[in-house]
């Protein structure tokens, strides 16, 4: 028997023990469909990453099998995806020239580092790091990446040499080489692109109108890229277009994934540190949202920390078998799910299918034109481009809009790593800025009730000797000084004041900085002859306060409810007012 | 007449128009006391910053006058302070060698950059940036700086050459040079240190016991450093100790502050960018807390943004008159306040006193031993060292402790800039981590009331078809995914569920990421046949939600109170339960 603690790390033990013939049948069918779809996609993403086409196949075989063992999603299909491939090209492009041995080796190292980071985050339960990527930043980044990817593929459609990692570099490089456009390449590229767009938009309704079942129509639609590959490859071969300047995939080794050893040069490791971290986090975020979405449809559970381990294992697999960084892809996972995959075994069968392809079918793609692969990429990534997020964010709030806009602009104009990093930094800064000026309302008693409301919005009862301020935010270092300033400035000019009550009903947490600010407020008020009271302090906050000195030094009291506080303070005042009378 | 918008930037117009003879008398008396105290302190901090002694005097003259015009604090005394002088030495030490022209020029540039940054933060109201320095980070940094400063002065007490910017570098350098200790220097250094400690701890009680008034005892105590300067200078001169290896201040020019032009070399500006930013923020935080504390004692107001302008102007003054970065100092401000300074004019009179000193008294300090200045620094900064913050933070919370400990260790072992930066980064990360896993409680109805409480802590009433989750935190990007995971995972296994109510009474704010997570939750629940409802949504949060699509897509409703929500949902259930009965 395997102890439970191992079982936690091996979800396969759970579903594997209940695997039956029905599940096998469904998984096999899904695997066939996904395999057919993955062949052109894998070749295309290798091209996008700047690697030889077989790397795309290799990156889809062992990783998918390792994810089947360690991952928790039943339907996730792991392999090369567009955004991660783009980030791979950007990271390695600065270090080695495309086509060199160093380039391929760096891709392996990047997969190794990303795998180790994901594993580490999983084992130490650091998945929360992915939370720092806000939705606006991710949306902005993915949209900008889609545009960048499409722009990077134009050179294959036009058949001209071009280079550059930013949108402006790419476009200027393209424009300056426009004279070298190859007619045949352009003809193939444009027709493949037009065909694939039509397949995506027009084919399915047509097939449904012809009376095909939705599932059948869907499957035929997904086969579009395969059809494009077959037709254009045959055309190039039959017309001998490669001799007329059409770039083709060329000789691809017939081989199972090779055993490879990533380079461990310290210099390389250092250069790839930040890119590997960003690739890991972006890949994880993309993968987990696909996994959660699909799992919810069947009321299945996803364990984010175990997902990190599954993706980490997949990337280690890629590193040692000639691949490059991989993650759970959206389109392939949806196909897998829609095709009826029931368990991760479907992924394993897909891997077998791709292994057979790598071993047997590679001679068939010798004449496959790069323009066709570029067309499949362009059509796929334009689905990622969603400029409506700019409008949504603008309507919602200026700071969310700023996060989207900065992420998009920096990604397009500077690069993918700078884009993600600046988006993350900006969202953190904006969040801190927002919470650094919490809403602080002066409140008074609603007559006839025990409720207290904002004095500027309601007809309420107040007393010149009592000031009640309600803080609508947890208190921590970023807003501690603001509270100090607000209270001190409000009290300074008001010589009638004798009591300040801080109403803490919306304070969920309080850190040491805030406690020290409250102590400072208490001291300053004390020097002005004003007492500080607290009301409606939540349990966890009270527990914290008991650990500091504030409660010993507080000139006033802590009241359970604001009404109690107000009553008690008014009674004190009356008692003081009566005293001189009785003494005289 | 001067328009009001100018008056905002010139607080002098406010207090200047009401200046009278009584205020003049008080301000003049305070100025005399502060001038006497500032002479040795200014020389000492110049030594600490690695600059010639006159730079300390110059940095105390024009800056203090400019602050008098632009600052809002009545009692703040601006000039060189220990921590900022240490940071200056650390920043310039990497760029130029002490004693070179380049070193002095870099100090001017640093003051210029710091002045411009402070002015910029003031004009653009960016004072909130200072909030990122939490109390634990500041306390840890100031304590560690105090230790570093004391260690850096030991070489003057021992009379040996030594170097280094980290504690370990300094101590190893000292130890390796111990053979070269100069007896006379050590004798002067130790006796000055012992004398100053005794003045600080023992003299005041003694004077009070002899019947002196507290004010007089205080004034005499503050004059301790001046006495030490006079006695040791006379000793060196009379015994000719400078010929026996005692390092002395030497020739100091007799001059008013010179007009200087900071270097604007782009390379230098780039190197000093981060140090200048850190010096500005640390200086501002130190200054504003002194100003706030003193202002509260007299119910005066401090405007943080205007303080930035005042400090910015002071630093620009330092940059163009042979000084180095300055800020509001704690000890000198307290002396100024205690001596009865009523308006910033006291600062201006102090400046006049110091100008006279710079012009006339510098020949008198020719034989002043560096060891005496080092002794005044050591005694002053050991007052900053407060290791109890470690214990306070440990008792309060692990994350506050981590912030203190990391700031202290990194400051001591790596350097001041790395120390502050790592402290700030760590506190931000810990804050995000804390809020990334908000407290989410499952609640039920307390029987006989309309209150809902945690089902694990109270005897409450629940229904198997209804799940109510209360989120005790504002929802934003760092915890949006956690909420998704919590709800999805809780609902997945529970097939009886038909309604999920999110109780939002503690949600003060909600950003676009959180709204999109709520949409995702709504969709996933919808696919499981479960409705999502919201209850007790605050006004500002509701306003936000109305800007997005969530309310259109929500499968359930938004209820004013949790009790309404619970009742409505149970009625729906009864209605559904009755339907099949009536249909059959």
UniProtKB/TrEMBL annotation, chains A, B:
Keyword Metal-binding: no
Compartments it resides in: Membrane
Keyword vocabulary terms for this entry: Membrane, Transmembrane, Transmembrane helix
Pfam families per record: STAS (PF01740), Sulfate_transp (PF00916)
Domain of life: Bacteria
One BP annotation, GO: transmembrane transport
CDD domains: STAS_SulP_like_sulfate_transporter (cd07042)
Annotated transmembrane regions: 28-49, 55-70, 77-97, 103-124, 136-158, 178-199, 219-239, 272-296, 308-326, 346-365, 372-390, 402-430
Main localization category: membrane
Cross-referenced PROSITE patterns: STAS
The STAS domain, residue ranges: 456-569
SUPFAM superfamilies per the UniProt record, alphabetical: SpoIIaa-like
Membrane association type: Multi-pass membrane protein
GO cellular component: membrane
Keyword Transmembrane helix: yes
Name used for this protein in its record: Sulfate permease, SulP family
């Amino acid at each position: 028997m395997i102890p439970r603690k191992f079982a936690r790390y091996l979800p396969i033990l759970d579903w594997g023990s209940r695997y039956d013939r029905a599940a096998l049948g469904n998984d096999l069918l899904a695997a066939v469909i996904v395999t057919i779809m993955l062949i052109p996609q894998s070749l295309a993403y290798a091209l996008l990453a700047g690697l030889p086409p077989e790397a795309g196949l290799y990156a889809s075989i062992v990783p998918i099998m390792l994810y089947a063992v360690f991952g928790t999603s039943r339907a996730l299909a792991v392999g090369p995806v567009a955004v991660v491939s783009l980030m791979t090209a950007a990271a390695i492009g600065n270090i080695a020239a495309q086509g060199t041995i160093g380039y391929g080796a760096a891709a392996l190292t990047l997969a190794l580092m990303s795998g180790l980071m994901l594993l580490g985050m999983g084992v130490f339960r650091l998945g929360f790091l992915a939370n720092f990527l806000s939705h606006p930043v991710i949306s902005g980044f993915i949209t900008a990446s889609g545009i960048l990817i499409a722009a990077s593929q134009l050179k294959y459609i036009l058949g001209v040499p071009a280079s550059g990692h930013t949108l402006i570099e790419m476009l200027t490089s393209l424009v300056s080489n426009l004279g070298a456009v190859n007619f045949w390449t352009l003809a193939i590229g444009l027709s493949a692109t037009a065909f694939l767009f039509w397949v995506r938009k027009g084919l399915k309704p047509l097939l449904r109108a012809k009376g095909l079942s939705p599932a059948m129509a869907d499957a035929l639609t997904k086969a579009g890229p395969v059809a494009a590959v077959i037709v254009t490859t045959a055309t190039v071969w039959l017309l001998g277009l490669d001799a007329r300047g059409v770039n083709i995939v060329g000789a691809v080794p017939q081989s199972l994934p090779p055993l490879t050893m990533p380079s461990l040069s310290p210099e390389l490791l250092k250069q790839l540190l930040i890119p590997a971290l960003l690739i890991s986090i972006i890949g994880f975020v993309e993968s987990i949202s696909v996994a959660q979405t699909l799992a919810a449809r069947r009321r299945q559970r996803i364990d984010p920390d175990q997902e990190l381990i599954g993706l980490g294992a997949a990337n280690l697999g890629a590193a040692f078998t000639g691949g490059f960084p991989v993650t759970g892809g959206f389109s392939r996972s949806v196909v897998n799910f829609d095709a009826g995959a029931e368990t991760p075994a479907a992924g394993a069968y897909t891997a077998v299918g791709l292994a057979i392809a790598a071993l047997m079918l590679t001679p068939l793609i010798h004449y496959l034109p790069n323009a066709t692969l570029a067309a499949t990429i362009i059509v796929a990534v334009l689905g990622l481009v969603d400029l409506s997020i700019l409008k949504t964010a603008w309507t919602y709030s200026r700071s969310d809009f700023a996060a989207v806009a900065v992420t998009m602009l920096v990604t397009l104009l500077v690069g993918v790593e700078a884009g993600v990093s600046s988006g993350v930094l900006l969202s953190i800064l904006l969040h801190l800025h927002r919470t650094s000026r919490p809403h602080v309302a002066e409140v008074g008693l609603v007559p006839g009730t025990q409720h207290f409301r904002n004095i500027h919005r309601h007809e309420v009862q107040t007393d010149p000797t009592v000031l009640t301020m309600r803080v609508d935010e947890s208190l921590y270092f970023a807003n501690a000084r603001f509270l100090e300033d607000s209270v001190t400035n409000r009290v300074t000019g008001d010589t009638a004041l004798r009591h300040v009550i801080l109403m803490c009903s919306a304070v969920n947490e309080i850190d040491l900085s805030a406690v020290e600010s409250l102590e400072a407020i208490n001291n300053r008020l004390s020097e002005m002859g004003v007492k500080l009271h607290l009301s409606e302090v939540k349990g966890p906050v009270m527990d914290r306060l008991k650990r500091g000195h504030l409660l010993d030094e507080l000139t006033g009291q802590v009241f359970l409810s604001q009404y109690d506080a107000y009553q008690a303070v008014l009674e004190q005042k009356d008692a003081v007012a009566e005293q001189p009378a009785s003494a005289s």
